[in-house]
Amino acid sequence: MTNEHSIEQSEALKPLIIGDLEIRIPIIQGGMGVRVSTASLAGAVANYGGAGTIASVGLGYGTPENETNFIKASREGLQKEIRQAKKLSRGVVGVNILVAVSNYEDLARTAVREKVDFIASGAGLPLRLPEFTEGSSIKLIPIVSSARAADIIIRSWKKRYNRLPDAIIAEGPLAGGHLGFKFEELESDKGNMLEDIVIDVLKVIKEYEELDVNIPVIAAGGIFDGKDAAKFLRLGAKGVQMATRFVATFECSVADEFKEAYLAAGEDDVVIIKSPVGMPGRVIRTKFIDRVMAGARMPIKCNYQCLKTCYSKIAPYCIAEALSKAISGDLDNAVVFAGSNVVKVKKIISVKDLMNDIVSGAIAEIEKGQG
Asked: For the stretch 77-91, what's the b/e string if a residue is b when 16 or more beta carbons lie within 10 angstroms of its beta carbon?
């Protein structure tokens, strides 16, 4: 399928330029595991001028081989999704790889072999990522939740590998899934707001821009519409990353029950939990979550350790299994990740219509500010 050009764009909304990579619409669809952002969604977003992202975590989960050879199953799952996305689109497609996964290096090297356009990497500091991608033209985009994390990554990469990030995603506390904040920070409204994080990260990269190095900053976490996008573009971000809204599209491959949970979610249904992997996460309340919050423990039978910080003997439940249940529609036994703005999602639409809505809203807001 060729790249679609039906989405209108004005001079007000500039492309996101990452090195020699041009993303015509400055929107990156965020990576959502387990098997939420797969080839069908990533390919559709890429077709309409944005950047599609395949989440690499859990792609082998549920297959017979996963029980006997977790690394091979994960690798083959990622290969399959990348190749399918490339069949669906000639646009920009990347991979999200969590630093926290135990097979991080193998997934990164797989992404390089399959020639994806970029790797976005968070849930930890991707300090060794340049080592695993050496010799390739793949763009490396760390995901950070503070200016300090951005500074550590930049200095480490410069010293050890003599290279810099090609872009940085600055993610705030309103995102869904596993979050790079302390539990207490997420329960309060104080500090760490995305605007402050973006401004602080922009200050960190300023000294490198003076050396004629371009490191675009991409804002993420709680961005819902074109008006939100325009706000961060005016702040100095060159693009935005959005994830939650893309779940409620026809092209997202999760079960209808998963999408209906998004449509039905109210303010009281979105809660923060302590994940078995040692990180807080934002989820939609389900019967499973109620049991977890009440202190219930679900027996785990695990022949591998997909996440570095998860230990099956002491973990209250298997997060990979609970996330897998979600995409198949078994919500009574599932963890359903979602951003704080899921309460605003009211209908399921096509990726094309969603992109059109965001773009037109952003252009209107930017042009209004210029008037």
From this structure: bbeebbebbbebbeb
In this prediction, residues 110-137 reach a mean pLDDT of 96
For the chain, the domains span 16-255+346-370, 257-337
CB atoms within 10 A of CB 177: 25
Four-residue CA torsion sign, 174, 263, 228, 327: positive
In terms of phi and psi (left: phi > 0; alpha: psi -120 to 50; beta: otherwise), the region of 221 is: left
pLDDT tens-digit series, residues 277-310: 778 899 999 999 999 889 888 777 666 666 656 6
Whether the pLDDT of residue 5 is over 50: the answer is no
Run of H or E residues at 119: strand 118-121
Amino acid code (one letter) for 337:
F
Residue where the block lists tokens 């960190």: 204
289-327 in b/e form (b: 16+ CB < 10 A) is: bebbeeeeeeebebebebbbebeeeebbbbbbbbbbbbb
CATH fold of 16-255+346-370: TIM Barrel (3.20.20)
Nearest CA-CA partner of 41 in 27, 60, 22, 62:
27
CA distance 250 to 353: 10
**Cβ atoms 7, 359 nearer than 8 A:** yes
Strands, DSSP E only, in 269-340?
270-274, 280-284, 336-337
**Mean predicted lDDT score pLDDT of the chain:** 90
Taking only the tens place, the pLDDT of each residue in 64-86 is 676 668 889 899 999 999 999 99
Tell me the CA distances in angstroms from 76 to 70, 73, 106, 153, one per residue in order. 10, 5, 11, 29
